[in-house]
Prior knowledge:
single chain, Alpha-Beta Plaits, binds ribavirin triphosphate, binds magnesium ion, alpha+beta, 4 strands
Amino acid sequence: xxxxxxxxxxxxxxxxxxxxxxxxxxxxxxxxxxxxxxxxxxxxxxxxxxxxxxxxxxxxxxxxxxxxxxxxxxxxxxxxxxxxxxxxxxxxxxxxxxxxxxxxxxxxxxxxxxxxxxxxxxxxxxxxxxxxxxxxxxxxxxxxxxxx
Length: 148
Ligand code: RTP
Ligand code: MG
């Protein structure tokens, strides 16, 4: 079963949107298999966003993502990587379709509420950065039989 790393960023936590974000993924039919409230260290932030190192916004991104608690999660489901990115919406919330999380709640790119892995490779990498293998709780729900 495909897995993805999802994180409610510091702005989402401050705006009391943790529960709402979880509900968006739950009602779609995806299943949370790990979740924790934590503060991202400078080292972890740099590693997580290393593809953007050297870009003009990298410093601001580091400051933002370490500025307060985040809610880190692993979600599981059929095509959950792309599915989650659709629920989250485009990087720039002003361009994100209404109905997506960013489209409904965000205005600016540097405060876009939620992160979602963009590929199988990055999901494996990011899950490994934030969670130990034994922290992933996979389990069967009978209702999932009716999803695909
Ligand atoms: P994320 O990784 O956080 O889920 O966001 P994303 O895939 O939609 O966007 P990505 O290109 O990976 O960029 C990572 C984060 O960097 C900030 N950013 N700022 N031009 C800019 O000012 C700019 N571009 C990107 C955003 O916070 C974005 O979520
Ligand atoms: Mg990204």
